[in-house]
Each structure stands twice: as structure tokens, then as C-alpha cells.
Amino acid sequence: MSDGPTPERPPGWSAEQPPPYGAPPASPWTAPGSGPEDVPYGQPYGDQPPPPPYGAQQQPPPYNPQHNPQQPPPPPPGYGYMPPPQALRPGIIPLRPLGLGDILDGAIKFIRSNPKAVLGLSGVAAAIASVPLAIALAVLNGQMLSMSNDPESIRSGDYLSNLLAGYSGVIASTVVGFVVTTVLTGMLTRILGRSVFGGKVTPGEAWNLVKGRMPALFGVVILVGLIMLAPFVVLVPLLVVLVANTSSAEGVAGLLGLTLLLLLAYLVYMLFFYTKFAFAAPVAVLEGRGPVDAMRRSWRLVKGDFWRVLGILLLTGLLASLASSLLSMPFSFAAQLLTIAGAGDGGAGVIAISAVLIAIGSTLASMIVYPLQAAIAGLLYADRRMRSEAFDLVLQTAALEQQRQGWVHSSADELWHPSNAAGS
Predict the structure, then answer these.
(1) For this UniProt entry, which segments traverse the membrane (predicted)?
(2) Residue 331 and residue 130: Cα distance in Å, rounded?
(3) What is the crossing angle of helices 214-244 and 249-276, to 10°?
(4) Tens of pLDDT along 124-158?
(5) How is residue 92 annotated by DSSP?
(6) SS3 of 227, please?
(7) Is 2's pLDDT higher than 60?
(8) H-assigned helices in 73-155
(9) How far apart are CA 385 and CA 416, in angstroms?
């Protein structure tokens, strides 16, 4: 065999000369029988895949629609990787902008974190507001049932007097409920302000903290109520005049259509101002503002996030109404059955038992609904301040200091003051 140049042996090749890109020399620390000289030339070392042929085109990685070429991918979990830190949560909510789940969870934790104060105050307020209403409804139901059983014996004057007597009790109960729920809202809001940091407030301490804010709180509720009822000053006389001057069937149909349109317009009006002034009560209590200033502050906080605030208020209001109905329905149904069963006797005992059943059901429902509504309004207010004023940084700084000291001081209530707001 010739040693001359061949296609496998280029010119200048020599047996003493190693081939180009040959295998590296064996390491002196390699155990016998395991060195690189045992690996055939051109084969990969260990379990590594073989390199692609020279000049072969590399296949691109599979397309990832979520990959942004201008942003480097996050590092894989492993050595040196640290997940993002969790938001500080000393109390019922994380100290960051809140989502719907955070608000609902915080409202439930608000009740569970201080049940004696929250449920105790709500129960007392609900009983005070429910008893007059229960008596009025029981009497009204008994009168209506008696009149339906013997309609010929009831003159029109007696019919109107019975209705006025029943509804006067309902109106009186509504006024009592208005006063009681306003006071309760102020006290629950003050308890909520401390619960955000994980602190607790006794009912007596809550009253001492909020009693100086009661005039402003009543002023807010009265002004908002007047704004809500203002359209009736024009609509009610207008409808009375139209009813008096309408006699034909076409006119009655047109009047019904106009009434529906006016009711729809009033619904839009009510939802708009209800959302705009949703934070007026928390502002009056926590920030120490006057009624008009609190309403202006609420208007500014809602600005830019109206639809989100409206949606959360409607959803949580629907959930609260559903919970209230489920809790009070068995007692109301039992009272109705008792009234129907004892209609022939017409005794005061039936009315009294019906009133007691209605009061129990209303009290149980209000014990849950009142604190939920107050907590949702207060947490939404805190969320808007964190989103629009970076108020979460103020809360986090205070929470870290309280953790260092090991307790929640009453000075935490001062953090809600408007001086800590960037846009106040």
C-alpha cells in the first residue's frame, strides 16, 4: 500500500503527525481505563449530545407567543433565584392595591378578627332598628288580612286609617334605623381603620374615638339623602298633574310609558351619586373632615375609577342582600303562616309572636349585613387612596414600625389623616 496522498490523506500528511483537532491528551488525574483516550475519535464525551455537522443550520427554538424579544426571560428557579416578596399583611388586608377578592376576604376577616366588638355592636343596633319595624309590619299584616277576610265590613275611612296606622310605624322605624345605622357605620369604620394594622378596638374605645365625628357623619348622610330624593320634588307633582288630566286609554298608556322612563332616569341618577359619595362616610370618620368637604373628597377619590367602584358596590350589595334574605326568610315565612293561621282569632298574642319572629330574622340578617357593608365601603376607600396617592407606602412604613415595636399603638388612627395623602 502506498503512503502517498489520497483523498483521505492530504498532501504533507505524515504518520508521526497527529490529525488536526485531535483528542486532547489524557489528564494525569484520570483513572486508568476512563480517560479520553478510551473515547473513539469524533465521539462526544459523557452523555452530551453530538455536535451538529460543520455548516449545518441551527434549528431555531420553538415559538413562544408570550416571549418578548426586548425583555429577557425570567431566570429559572434554582440557585440564585428568589421569588418576588409577598405584600406586607399585618391585618385583614395586604398593604397594596386591592382586588375584588381582597376586598371580600378583608370584609369577612374584619368580622372574624374582632367578633365581640363588630357583631356585638351590630346586634344591638339591628335589634333597636328591627323591633319597631317588626311591630309595625306585624300590625299592618294583621289589619290587611282582617280586611281581606271581611271586605264588606270595612268602610273607606277605616281602610285608610288602618293603612296610615300601619305605615306610620314603618316610617318611625325607618327614622330610628337611620339614626342607629349611621352611628354604627361610624363606629365600625373606626374599628376597621385599626384592623388594617392588625389591632383591635373595644366598643367603648370605638365610641370615644367616633363620638366627636357624629355631627359630620349625620351631616353627610342627610346631605346625600337629600340629593337622592331631590328629583322627587319635581317628579311627584308632575305625575300627579298628569294623572289628574288623563282619562283616555291612550293617555293612560302614555303615562305608564313616561313613568317607566322617569324611573329609569332616576335609577341612573341614583347610581351615579351613590357611587360618587360612597366614600364620604369613611372620609368624615377617618380623615376628620366636615360633611361638604368629605363629599368633595369622595368625589375626587372616585374620579378616574368610577366604573370599577360602581361594579364592586353593586356586586357586594347584591351579595349582602342575598345573605340578608336567606337569613331572614325562614322567620318572615313563619310569621306569615302564624298570622294566616290566627286570622280568625285576631288576638294580640298572634301579632306579638309574629313581631318577635320578624324581629329575630331581621336582627340576624342585619348583624351580618351591616358590618359587611361598612367594611366594603372602608376597604374600597383605602384601595382608592393606595391607587391614587401611593398610600400603601405610608401604611407599609407604619406597619413595619409597629412590627418592630411588637404592638399596634392608637397613633395608627392618625395615619388616615389627610396630611398623609399626596393629593389632599
Answers:
(1) 118-140, 160-184, 216-240, 252-274, 306-328, 348-381
(2) 13
(3) 170
(4) 888 887 777 777 766 666 666 665 655 555 555 55
(5) S
(6) helix
(7) no
(8) 100-113, 115-149
(9) 10
Burial of 45 (0-12, 13-18, 19+ CB in 10 A): exposed
Give me 400's grid cell: 413595619
Q: How far is it, in rounded angstroms, from Cα 243 to Cα 176?
A: 34
Amino acid code (one letter) for 108: I
Sequence letter at residue 377: A
CA 100 distance to own-chain centroid: 5
Q: Give the DSSP H/E element, type plus range, for residue 315.
A: helix 306-341
Half-sphere exposure of 366 (CA within 13 A, CB side): 24
Distance from C-alpha of 224 to C-alpha of 247, rounded to nearest angstrom: 38
Sign of CA dihedral 280, 285, 286, 290: positive
What's the CA gap between 256 and 70, in Å, rounded?
A: 62
Q: CB count, 10 Å around CB of 142?
A: 22
Residue 189 grid cell: 369604620
Note the pLDDT of residue 315. Answer: 93
Q: Which triple of cell numbers denotes residue 181?
A: 345605622
pTM for this structure?
0.71
Nearest Cα to Cα of residue 125 among 366, 313, 318: 366
Q: Inter-axis angle of helices 249-276 and 291-302, to 10 degrees? A: 90
Going by the DSSP 8-state scheme, the letter that residue 416 receives in this structure is G
Query: For residues 280 and 220, is the Cβ–Cβ distance under 8 A?
Result: yes
Q: How far apart are the C-alpha atoms of 39 and 235, rounded to whole Å?
A: 98
Phi and psi torsions of 409, nearest 5°: -85, 155
